[in-house]
C-alpha cells in the first residue's frame, strides 16, 4: 500500500518527509522517493528497497541536518507490476510538474496515447506519469495551477490522491482526492499533507480530512479547499491518538480499518496487471505457467477458513473463464487423502499469511508431481518459498485476526488467474476478456460505494445483536459468501452461525427456522438464481424468521416479500458481485461483535497464523 507525505512551511522539509514516510512503513512498500523544492528548483531523489536506501542518498544533508528545502512531497510505493524500479518510483516529473499518486488511473492507456501524440515522452510504465504530463501540458497552455488541476482531474477516470508541485509556483502543494484517502495536518506557519494520519502526528494533531472530489491548494499559511469549483470548509478535528490508535487510522479496531482499506487493497492488487485497451493480462510472475497452461487438465485450489472460501469463488473463475475442471479442498483434508492426479495439474494454495501449516503441507505433498502456485499476501512466506510460482495479493499488512481485505484481494487474484489461463488457452474471446478487465477497474470505486451501507448495517446489527443463531443463505457464487458471512460472524461475535446453499435449506436446516432466527440471504441480480433464491426466501419468511436481504439487484426488481431489512450494494459486474455483496456481511459481523463487547481484533481461541494442525 503506497504512502504519501507533503510539507510546506519554515522547517527543513527533508527530515519531516522521511519521518512521515517512516510512520507509514507498516503499510508495506518496495521503493520510495522525494521531491524537494530548493531555491525555486525541484530535486527528485528515488530509491528501490526500504527507506534506509533513500536515506543513504541524503546522508550528507542529514549529517548536517540541513537540506535547505522547506517544501517537498514524498512517497512510498508498493509495486504491483514488474520489478519495483527507480524509474517507476514516485515522484514522477513532466516539465515543471512533480507529482505523486495513490490509486489507479483507469483510462491511462488512452491518455498516454493522446499525450504521446502531442509529443510527451514517458519514462516509466506507471499510470501516474500520465497525470504528471497532463498537468504539465495544461500549465504550459497558460492555465493557472488550480484550473490545471481541475482539468487534469476531469480528464482522469479512477481513484486517486494526487500531490503535485509546480516549479513555477513555489510554496504551493496542489492536492486532489477521489476514493483514496488524503488528510491535511494544520500547523503554525506550516502545513502537512498525507495519505494517513500517523505520517503527521509528530508535528500536529489538527487534522482536516478531505472528501471525494476535493481539490486543495496548500501553502505554509493557508489551506484552500474546493469541490465542484466551489470553495468548501472541511471540519478540523483534533486527534488524541497514541501510536497504536494512529496505526488503526483512528478506527476503533484494525478489523474495521481493514474493511475500509479494501478499495485501496484491491486497487493495489490490480495495478499494472492488465491492459484496459486489449484485455491482456500481465502476470510475469506466472511465466512458468505459459508452457503448461494449454495442456492443463485440472486445477485444484486449497486453503483454510476464509482462504478456502476464496477458493470456492476461484472455481467459478477457473471453470467459466479457462474451461478447466477445478476442485476445491480444505488443505487439512487434501493432504491426507490419496491424490489422484497427473502432472497436467495445477495446485494452487491460497493463504493470506503464507504460514498456515495445513496449506503448506498441501503444497509440500504434491511438490514435483504437479505444478504449484501460491496466492499469498506476505512476501517470502513459507508457502511462497515452497511453491513453483507466487501470485502476490497486495492487501498490505492484515493485523486483525478476522480476514477481510485479504479475502477481497484473493478474489481479485483468482479472477486474474482465471483470465490469464483463459488468454493462454484461447477459451475466451478478446472482447469478453476486455469487458471483464474493464469491469475490474471499477472495483475500487464500487467497494467505496458499497461500504456506504455502514449506517444501515449498524441499525440492523442493533436489532439482531442478541440473537444466538444465524443462518446465511446464497446460491451460486453467493454460496461461498454465505459461508464467509457466517464464519466472520461466529469468529468475532461468538454467535453460532451457519452458511448454507439456499437450495439445500429445505433438506434440513429449515427445521431450525423460527422468529428467533435471523436469516441473511445473499441475493445476486442474475435472473435465474435471483428467482430461485427468492423462492427459498419466501419459505424462510413464512416461518417467521427475521430476514436480512443483501442484494445488488436493481431497485425496481420486485422482491415480493416483506423482508425486515434490505441492504443494497452497487452492481459492477457478475464477477465482482460476490466481493461487493460480502462487504455488508463483514460490517454486520463487526458491529454485532462490538455491540456484544467481544475482543474484535483478537477473538478468543484464535490466532492470526495457524501454524499447528
Ligand atoms: C477467518 C480467518 C481464517 C484464515 C485461515 C487461513 O477470518 O482469518 O479462517 O482465513 O486461518 O489463513 P491464511 O489465509 O493465513 O492461510
Quick summary:
Helices cover 36% and strands 23% of the residues. The protein has 613 residues and is of the alpha/beta class.
Kindly report the oligomeric state of this protein: single chain
Overall tally of structural domains: 3
Q: What small molecules are bound in this structure? A: fructose -6-phosphate
* CATH class identity of the largest domain: Alpha Beta
Major sheet, described briefly? 8 strands, antiparallel
**Number of discrete helical segments:** 21
Q: What fraction of the residues are assigned to beta strands by DSSP? A: 15-25%
User: C-alpha Rg, in Å?
Assistant: 25 Å
> Structural class, judged by helices and strands?
alpha/beta
Give the overall pLDDT as a whole number. 92
- The low-confidence runs, each spanning 5 or more residues with pLDDT under 50, are none
Number of strands: 25
Shape: globular
Across the major sheet, the strand order is: 3-2-4-1-10-9-11-15
- Per CATH, the architecture of the largest domain is 4-Layer Sandwich
Distance between the termini: 32 Å
What is the share of helical residues? 25-40%
Amino acid at each position: 500500500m503506497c504512502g504519501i507525505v507533503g510539507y510546506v512551511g519554515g522547517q527543513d522539509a527533508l527530515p519531516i518527509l522521511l519521518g512521515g514516510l517512516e510512520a507509514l512503513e507498516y503499510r508495506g512498500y518496495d521503493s520510495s522517493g522525494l521531491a524537494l523544492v530548493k531555491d525555486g528548483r525541484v530535486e527528485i531523489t528515488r530509491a528501490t528497497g526500504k527507506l534506509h536506501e533513500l536515506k543513504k542518498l541524503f546522508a550528507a544533508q542529514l549529517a548536517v541536518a540541513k537540506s535547505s528545502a522547506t517544501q517537498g512531497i514524498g512517497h512510498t510505493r508498493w509495486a504491483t507490476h514488474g520489478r519495483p524500479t527507480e524509474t517507476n518510483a514516485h515522484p514522477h516529473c513532466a516539465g515543471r510538474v512533480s507529482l505523486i499518486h495513490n490509486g489507479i488511473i483507469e483510462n491511462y492507456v488512452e491518455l498516454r496515447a493522446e499525450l504521446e501524440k502531442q509529443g510527451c515522452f514517458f519514462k516509466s510504465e506507471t499510470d501516474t506519469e500520465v497525470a504528471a504530463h497532463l498537468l504539465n501540458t495544461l500549465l504550459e497552455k497558460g492555465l493557472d495551477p488550480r484550473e490545471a488541476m481541475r482539468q487534469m482531474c476531469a480528464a482522469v477516470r479512477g481513484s486517486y490522491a494526487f500531490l503535485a508541485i509546480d516549479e513555477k509556483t513555489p510554496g504551493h502543494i496542489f492536492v486532489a482526492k477521489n476514493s483514496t484517502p488524503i488528510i491535511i495536518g494544520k500547523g503554525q506557519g506550516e502545513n502537512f499533507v498525507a495519505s494517513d494520519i500517523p505520517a503527521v502526528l509528530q508535528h500536529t494533531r489538527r487534522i482536516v480530512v478531505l472528501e471525494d472530489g476535493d481539490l486543495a491548494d496548500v501553502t505554509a499559511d493557508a489551506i484552500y479547499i474546493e469541490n465542484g469549483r466551489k470553495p468548501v470548509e472541511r471540519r478540523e478535528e483534533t486527534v488524541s491518538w497514541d501510536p497504536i490508535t494512529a496505526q488503526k487510522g483512528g478506527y476503533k479496531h484494525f478489523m474495521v480499518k481493514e474493511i475500509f482499506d479494501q478499495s485501496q487493497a484491491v486497487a493495489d492488487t490490480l495495478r499494472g496487471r492488465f491492459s484496459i485497451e486489449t484485455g491482456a493480462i500481465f502476470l510475469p510472475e506466472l511465466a512458468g505457467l505459459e508452457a503448461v497452461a494449454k495442456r492443463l487438465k485440472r486445477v485444484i485450489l486449497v486453503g483454510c477458513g476464509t482462504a478456502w472460501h476464496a477458493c470456492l469463488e476461484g472455481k467459478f473463475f477457473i471453470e467459466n473463464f479457462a474451461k478447466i475442471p477445478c476442485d476445491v479442498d480444505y488443505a487439512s483434508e487434501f493432504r491426507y487423502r490419496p491424490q489422484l492426479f497427473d502432472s497436467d495439474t495445477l495446485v494452487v494454495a491460497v493463504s493470506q499469511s503464507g504460514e498456515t501449516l495445513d496449506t503448506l503441507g498441501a503444497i509440500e505433498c504434491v511438490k514435483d508431481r504437479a505444478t504449484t502456485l501460491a496466492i499469498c499476501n506476505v512476501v517470502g512466506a513459507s508457502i511462497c518459498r515452497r511453491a513453483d510460482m507466487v501470485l502476490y495479493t497486495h492487501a498490505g499488512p492484515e493485523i486483525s485476526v478476522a480476514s477481510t481485505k485479504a479475502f477481497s484481494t484473493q478474489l481479485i487474484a483468482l479472477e486474474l488467474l482465471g483470465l490469464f489461463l483463459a488468454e493462454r488457452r484461447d477459451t475466451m474471446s478478446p472482447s469478453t476478456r476486455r469487458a471483464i478487465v474493464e469491469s475490474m477497474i471499477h472495483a475500487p470505486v464500487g467497494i467505496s460505494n458499497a461500504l456506504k451501507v455502514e449506517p444501515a448495517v449498524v441499525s440492523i446489527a442493533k436489532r439482531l445483536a442478541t440473537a444466538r443463531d444465524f443462518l446465511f443463505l446464497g446460491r451460486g457464487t453467493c454460496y461461498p459468501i454465505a459461508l464467509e458471512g457466517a464464519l466472520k460472524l461466529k469468529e468475532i461475535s461468538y454467535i453460532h452461525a451457519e452458511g448454507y446453499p439456499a437450495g439445500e435449506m429445505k433438506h434440513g436446516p429449515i427445521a431450525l427456522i423460527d422468529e428467533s432466527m435471523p436469516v441473511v440471504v445473499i441475493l445476486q441480480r442474475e435472473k435465474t438464481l435471483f428467482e430461485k433464491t427468492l423462492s427459498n426466501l419466501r419459505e424462510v419468511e413464512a416461518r417467521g424468521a427475521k430476514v436480512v436481504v443483501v442484494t445488488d439487484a436493481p431497485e425496481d426488481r420486485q422482491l415480493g416479500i416483506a423482508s425486515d431489512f434490505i441492504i443494497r450494494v452497487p452492481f459492477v459486474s457478475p464477477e465482482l458481485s460476490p466481493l461487493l455483496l460480502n462487504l455488508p456481511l463483514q460490517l454486520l459481523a463487526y458491529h454485532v461483535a462490538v455491540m456484544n463487547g467481544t475482543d474484535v481484533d483478537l477473538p478468543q481461541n484464535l490466532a492470526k497464523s495457524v501454524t499447528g494442525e
